[in-house]
């Protein structure tokens, strides 16, 4: 299976966000990972729908929108309209995960669920058929540049088994580097999110290539 690289624009230069999105596109990224934070579910604040709408014209690549907000449900339609292709909600947010997933698909978008490091994969058991993607957080969400939590490798492998032959992407987010990417993929991931590992130096193409190797 080919591995997709999804740079997180949380580590981009916010003063030049459109140009940064174009730059990672030209550097060969597969998806653009957009970390939406509300200062409530996570201790940080980032992008509203208007910002996503503003950067949408800078690339035709998939916008992978990771909602670290609680509640998420009231904002799902706004992010869909702003240009998200995949909308990922957290299993720990809201009260009705099944309903959120149905709403995302009813808007014609791909539906994802993200799990915090301490959340067991069993929360996925009864929504597997409503999912297009599972996002395993390998750091506690809120900030870029944290260290990969090794215990998540086992969770990735367990979720990979739960997915079986279903067409569900398994994405890993947080602390992914060129040094540990192979272990994350070996555990079963097919999409790697990387913020600092992509934006750490100007040569985004080389940084993305290093993650693929
Ligand atoms: C953390 C975000 C991640 C983060 C990854 O809350 O969900 O996407 O930006 O950044 P790195 O790759 O620097 O850990
Ligand atoms: Zn993320």
CATH homologous superfamily grouping = Aldolase class I
Q: DSSP strand (E) fraction? A: 15-25%
Please write the string of helix (H) and strand (E) elements: EHEHEHEHEEHEHEHH
When the domains are counted, the total is 1
Distance between the amino and carboxyl termini: 13 Å
Q: Determine the CATH topology.
A: TIM Barrel
CATH class: Alpha Beta
- Judging by the overall fold, what is the CATH architecture? Alpha-Beta Barrel
Number of helical segments with 4 or more residues = 8
Largest sheet: 8 strands, parallel
Bound molecules: D-xylitol-5-phosphate, zinc ion
**Rg computed from alpha carbons, rounded to a whole number of angstroms:** 16 Å
Question: What's the shape?
Answer: globular
Placed side by side, the strands forming the largest sheet appear as 1-8-7-6-5-4-3-2
Question: How many extended strands?
Answer: 8
The poorly predicted ranges are none
Tell me, rounded to a whole number, the average pLDDT: 98
Helicity range of the residues? 25-40%
EC number: 5.1.3.1
Pfam families: Ribul_P_3_epim (PF00834)
Catalytic activity: D-ribulose 5-phosphate = D-xylulose 5-phosphate
Family: Belongs to the ribulose-phosphate 3-epimerase family.
